[in-house]
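Listing S7. Sequence submitted for prediction.
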Amino acid sequence: MVGQRDKGLVRALGSWGLAANIVNIVVGAGIFALPSALAAALGTYAPLAILACAVAVGAVAICFAEGGSRVPTSGGVYGCIEAALGPLAGFVAGTVLWVSDVLACGGVAAALADVAASLTAPALVPAVRTLVIIAVIGGIALLNIGGVARGARLVGVATFVKLVPLAVFLIVGLGAVSAAHFAPPPAARALDPGRALLLALFAFTGMEASLCASGEVAEPARTIPRALALAIGGVTVLYLTIQIIAQGILGPALASSAVPLADAMAQVSGPLRALMLAGAALSMFGWIGSDILSTPRMVFAFARDGYLPRSLGRVHPRTHAPHVAIACYALIAALLALTGTFAELAVLSTLGAAALYIAGCAAAWRLARRGVALAGAPLNCRSLPAAAIVGIASMLVPMALASRAEILGLLALLAAAAVVFLLHRRAGFARAGA
């Protein structure tokens, strides 16, 4: 199944390219607003939430690295879960992954278009918004149809460009930090550690989408673990430093800031505030680039496995890219953005990721116990059992913190995916018996 799924693809994605893709999709536009949300929930203790989620996601990353080194296939986590837990679990996991990603892609594109349209005359807003959505999603899709190497180069450039404003923030901000702004919040203030953990975990999600391109990774047994370590380690340091500097510059005002990084830089220089706003827009663009490089491979994998129309599993004869899957995914994302019906549901997205991470941890553990290795010597991480336990237990926390409606929404998505799979399986049996 795995070999057929990846037939025709070229393994051209290396450690740095995959790591850049993971960083680009994890460090989205949210980092430009996250510090204020964390400060509002946990005050000066916000870095603790980041550290807690770094440990949790780090444990999951170890499991993903082990699973990815054993079953390096298009669809990433979906392929590992399918190989370890069976086709039903794989299909449900893959559905959770690509549906949530395409909704997020449409939402980010709509937000980017709104930023661009806000700079024009009111009469031009609808036209500019439409043009930006089509140009951004369509242009990135066309580039990715030109081959995975081109898509990876775009991600690499976007990651660098995105990180420039953040680097400026770190360098300039260090000199403007005031120790007085790190005083603990008043005892009377109610803290919300649950919300802080959900927000921080949401900011760390995304590596599962990047791993959808595992079928095009060179030397996957080495590349996938190395890329995950580079990406998650770098993101943790970046998030912690940004949170501390933002707190040190704005102090109590951080909790009420709509654009915390921009407001912090405004304390130093007006042009730097504009740079931070531009950085947020570039971050959205880079996120879309990473998503269109990654998640259409999930659609491609589903088609290769017979769960979606076979045409979505075609590979371009010249570029060896899954061009039909990329085009269809981009079209759905653009339609969602153009209609403006997509609402940002960060908590629901986090719940979906948590469910996927639990299944991924369990799958990696089972693959290791069974000795599955489809691409040479696997990682064979000695701490895998401990990482799986920590990862699964950590991901149960956001589920316990979610509201009843949010949990029911996640269960509805899981149930719908299971029903679709069972109907597909029954139809297959009926055709076989005819």
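Caption to Listing S7: primary sequence and predicted structure tokens for the chain studied. The chain has one domain: 2-425. The mean pLDDT is 81.
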